[in-house]
Amino acid sequence: MATVTVFGAVRTVTGSMHLVESGERVLMDCGLFQGRRAESFEINSHFPFPPASLSAVVLSHAHLDHCGNLPTLVQQGFRNAIYCTPATRDLTALILRDSAKIQAQDIRFVNKIRAQHGQPPTQPLYTEDDAERAISHLTTVPYRQAFQIGGMRCTFYDAGHILGSAVTVVEVEGRTLVFSGDLGRPDAPILRPAEVPPAGDVVLMESTYGDRTHDTIAHGEQMLGTAVAQAIARGGKVLVPAFAVGRTQDLTYSLHRLQDAGGIPVVPTFVDSPMAVDATEIFRAHPECFNDQTRSYLGQGDPFGFKQLRYVRSAQESQQLNDLTDPFIVMATSGMCESGRILHHLRHHIEDPQSTLLIVSFQAANTLGRRLADGVSPVNIFGEPHQVRLQVQKIEAFSAHG
After folding, report:
1. Which residue stretches of 189-264 are H helix?
2. Residue 401: which pLDDT band, with cuts at 50, 70 and 90?
């Protein structure tokens, strides 16, 4: 008899892992548990099964809480295929390399502190080499093309959550299991809505926002346009902390639409994040995931490019934005204002009452983004207190979860 064991993402939103057993042992997702440092390391470094015993991994999408622990799995003995869609393969490679790089930077800082206290150095959860080994196992399968893992027949259907995301239908022992992964929204600005897969005997579905209804994307775009236009009219800057994958592309596309419709003035606009620049290139490479409206933009030009939009890679270019005196818009990571270039922009503009900070993403407890969203002032940036004098506005319509 086939069995399904759920190991992660239960009463929490991270660490997704579901094990399907029926002769073969197939792991659905291998997400990173995110929380307090010591607890997270302990959970992520110990799997409740021998990784070498797995026949395969099937990956729903490229968010860290669904793919982020693949390098540890490979490090501990997994040697078989990791199945995913082509777009998920490209985004997962980007995400895992970035995760390993951040861990390397983080561990250098931690070990410096440990050395000052006479403590031995510690190791990251996984290294950049581990990430590359995991990437080498990624095996792509298009939507609606069945693939076999022993006696299991699997098929991907579009989940509409992020680029390449998939609902996985597993046919095994005469029964059908449906794993939703994360599901998107029918009014998403770029991607096709989730497909309805064949009926299943068992459905395992996410419920991140199962108890509430989102505002519409159309209303979110209207609020975005109003906030941007008001800040520019005051002569201020617009700062937007945004996740590099998904949210940045959604906002860029929405700003494009607003500018085309005359809803916002034409001002310099910057995507100030090397990772977001790379992610946008991956979006451009996968128009097969776009909805009809976005595909229509392809005939007219670039959905992710418009007048006075510039993508910023180098730190030098980023620092030069501080010298600009006229109004501009900047989107930068991290989405919760905990790291990345958004901190430099905040430090430079947080005491300017003409400028606006747009909170367009979920802000976890105890993050700088959450404190700003809650109206806390002063706040610490790079260890120094700053009075919050810029306008802070929340727009909660852009969630990628249905």
Report:
1. 217-233, 247-260
2. low
Q: DSSP letter string over 247-292?
A: HHHHHHHHHHHHHHTTSS----EEEE-HHHHHHHHHHHH-GGGB-H
Domain limits, the chain: 3-204, 217-394
Give 215-224 pLDDT, tens digit per residue: 787 888 999 9
Residue-wise pLDDT tens digits, 336-386: 898 889 999 999 999 999 999 999 987 878 889 999 999 999 999 988 999
In CATH terms, are 3-204 and 217-394 the same topology?
no
In one-letter notation, the amino acid at residue 157 is: Y
CB atoms under 10 Å from CB of 314, counted, come to 9
Distances (CA, A) of 77 to 20, 49, 74, 314: 19, 11, 5, 37
Q: What is the pLDDT of residues 77-94, one digit of tens each?
A: 999 999 999 999 999 999
For 197-210, b/e burial (b = at least 16 CB within 10 A) is beebeeebebeeee
Q: What is the CATH number of domain 3-204?
A: 3.60.15.10
The Cα–Cα gap between 209 and 266 comes to 35
User: Could you report the per-residue pLDDT of 326-345, keeping only the tens digit for each?
Assistant: 999 999 998 889 888 999 99
Class of the CATH domain delimited by 217-394: alpha beta
- pTM of this structure: 0.91
How far is Cα 316 from Cα 24, in angstroms, rounded to an integer? 52
